[in-house]
Amino acid sequence: MYMDLIEHLFILKKYLMKNKAEDPIQYIQNLDLQYIVKRLVGKKNWDEAEAKDTVRKYKNFLALKILDPKLVRVPTLEIDEVWHDHILHTRKYMQDCDRIFGKYMHHEPSSGTKEEEEHLADLYVETMRSYEEKFQESYGHALDISKWCTNKGKL
Questions:
Q1: How far apart (Å, rounded) are the C-alpha atoms in residues 134 and 137?
Q2: Calpha distance 125→2 (Å, rounded)
Q3: Looking at residue 153, what is its pLDDT?
Q4: How far apart, in whole angstroms, are the C-alpha atoms of residue 139 and residue 89?
Q5: pTM for the predicted model, two decimal places
Q6: DSSP secondary structure code for residue 124 in this structure
Q7: What H or E segment, with its residue span, contains residue 45?
Q8: What is the pLDDT, as a whole number, of residue 155?
Q9: Contacts of 46 (CB under 8 A, 6+ apart)
Q10: 130 class by beta-carbon count within 10 Å (0-12 exposed, 13-18 middle, 19+ buried)
Q11: Which of 72, 74, 124, 133 is the most exposed place for a label (fewest CB within 10 A)?
Q12: Which is it for the CA torsion 130, 132, 136, 137, positive or negative?
């Protein structure tokens, strides 16, 4: 754990020296993603409160990736929808990734194989455990990973 903290501080120092900007966690919390809320409400018929809450959870998801960048994190279906909307605004997404991670954060689609589904299910459980431990709130429901893999391209 001590080594993890040192590694996080090293990454943070490297980031701050490169970007001469605020802490990436603070940058994430200050992200203005209201345009995503508007799109989810207007085009996807989401409830506004649900859209705002999911955008907040997406920001927490990004923070998890900063806190332990070596781990693969699996989003909930709702967080994945927000991530897709963020990516669609390519210039902003690239700028945000550079400011947060110091590089572009790729989104890898699922191939849907049985082995990958099992691996993603394990990673999802680990993501949920880490999220709930860090943020003291529910990450989401237990995920039926086969449904998630099937729906990936249809959201």
A1: 8
A2: 24
A3: 40
A4: 25
A5: 0.79
A6: H
A7: none
A8: 33
A9: 40, 54
A10: middle
A11: 133
A12: positive
For the stretch 36-71, what's the b/e string if a residue is b when 16 or more beta carbons lie within 10 angstroms of its beta carbon?
A: bbebbbeeeebeeeebbebbebbbbbbbbbbeeeee
Task: Enumerate helices (H) and strands (E) in the chain, giving the number of each.
Answer: 8, 0
Q: Give the amino acid at 1.
A: M
Amino acid at 91: R
| Local confidence pLDDT in tens for the 155 residues of the chain | 555 666 666 666 666 555 555 799 999 999 999 999 999 999 999 999 999 999 999 999 999 999 988 889 999 999 999 999 999 999 999 999 999 999 999 998 888 888 988 898 899 999 999 999 999 999 987 665 555 555 544 33
Is there a contact between 132 and 76 (Cβ–Cβ < 8 Å)? Answer: no
Residues 6+ apart with CB under 8 A from 79: 54, 57, 58, 61, 140
